[in-house]
Specification:
single chain, 104 residues, alpha+beta, DNA Binding (I), subunit A, two-stranded antiparallel ribbon, 33% helix, globular
């Protein structure tokens, strides 16, 4: 007899935590380990609320009709995510820090 997935028996907050970990891993695989805002490397271990820890940034904020689709998600430092706030995608693009040119 097949086993039932036990995830449905976890509390809602644990299910949300697991979904966020899966999203963070998928975006990290797609974009790499650098912050979308400043370009510096992020820390993926505990503590998860410290300044250089990775968080999920919505390019189009949820408050403006954005979704949890992977195309709308980027990884940022906690502090960079707070700095970007709920601005529009155009404003966020202008707020991004300039990257140094490599290969010169």
């Amino acid at each position: 007899m097949p086993r039932k997935p036990f995830a449905k028996y976890l509390p809602w907050w644990m299910q949300k935590h697991i979904r966020n970990q899966e999203r963070r891993a998928a975006v990290r695989k797609r974009d790499g380990d650098e912050c979308w805002h400043c370009g510096n490397p992020m820390r993926f271990g505990p503590p998860f609320n410290a300044g250089k820890a990775a968080t999920i940034e919505h390019v189009m904020p949820l408050s403006q009709g954005g979704t949890w689709a992977l195309g709308n998600l980027k990884l940022c430092h906690v502090g960079c995510n707070r700095h970007l706030g709920a601005h529009s995608p155009e404003q966020k693009e202008r707020m991004r820090l300039p990257r140094p040119l490599t290969g010169r």
